[in-house]
Amino acid sequence: MHPFAFTKASDTREAVNAGRRGGRYIAGGTTLVDLMRETVERPETLVDISGLPLGEVTVTERGGLRIGALVSMSEAAAHPKVRTLYPVVSEALELSASAQLRNMATIGGNIMQRTRCTYFRDVTADCNKREPGSGCAALHGHNRTHAILGTSDDCVATHPSDVAVAFAALDARVHLLGPDGQRQVPFTDFLLRPGNTPQREQALRKGELITTVEIPAHPRPLKSGYLKVRDRQSYEFALTSAAVALHVRGGVIREAKVAAGGVGTVPWKLSAVERHLTGERPSDALWSAAAERAADGARALQHNQFKVELLQRTVERQMRIVGGTK
Predict the structure, then answer these.
(1) Which segments constitute the FAD-binding PCMH-type domain (predicted)?
(2) Is the pTM of this model over 0.90?
């Protein structure tokens, strides 16, 4: 681990000022500290933001939710409003990491975590995300766990977060505070596809701090849930996952929200699936036909071609679980 300076921010203004000077924010530290040990990350200054007043879950006037950036994963998963209004969020969190890590890791840190690509974490391997212009070892290496959606010739690494998939499905927004004041970014625009700049992973400006993630109000009743498919049942990242939320009234799907994880360079919003569902009556045939659109645009690699069918099956299964059949 390389030497670094450490400072603790007493308020958000102090944190933003330190971030503007190049400091890296840290709270739970469950990802950043690991990367520092492996010398993948070499920050000169760490800014401890764990004491800032960003640790609450609140219901908005319209019935949505705001989850503070410093709410721990376990606190968010157990919060009665999260569990009642958006079970898909609770389920995604409970299927993430270990109980010990969920107690430490924060919502803001979770969506900021970097890829679990083994080549990214191996400083002897070529990785455009870690060292722009060096190449992507995964393209022609062992790429079984890598992305089939949103990839580029520069990067095929997946985003590892489970709850980010639920946030993408629910059209969440990220609230930011920076040197130029406050702003909001749609969640689907916050995490960036690699393109030819894979080293830039979030739509953050210098010094900006995540304050909350807001889930907008959705029509009621809203049934939702999260399904994660992985090689083992505990402490493992997704091969594929599906976050599904459906508003069914009068026997017709009035609104559908669907996203996938484990298959994209970012949590992948399945807009084609959503369009296929909206206005239709739940049925086995509908789930099957809609799921066929889940892998639209997929570009499989040598070792992960199985993810195309697995994604379709995962999405279909979770739509059946959430929506049932008539």
Answers:
(1) 1-220
(2) yes
